[in-house]
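USER: My hope is that you can spare some time for a protein that puzzles me. I am handing you a single protein, as its sequence and its fold in token form. Walk me, if you will, through where the backbone shape changes along the chain. The protein I mean follows directly.
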Amino acid sequence: MLDFLVSILLLVGSFFIVVGAFGLVRLPDFFMRLHGPTKSTTLGVGSFLLAAVVHAVDDGFTLRELLIALFLFITAPVSAFLLGQVGLRRHVDSRAPLPEDFPGLRHEPPDLPSRLRQTPLPGD
């Protein structure tokens, strides 16, 4: 039964890694390509590590796989955030639609209470 669960986790992980690699290659711009390695590939490697933990149940508990997963799930979002900040500061072009691209859609700001309308910003 455990071998079946390990096989399913490995197949799910492989699927996510292939989808992440496909997204990295096929998505059109820098900001869209960030999603491939940071979202789906992280889930794929996490599934691989979960399969390793399930497989190690017979031999005894190992902390190594859990520490690897913790490191992965902490560093992947941080590195994606830093890459996104670099792209913004270098003014990398994006193909994502902007609100100006949809003139028929208007988002009105919510009606604020009077005490919040004229609140000056710090340093003003």
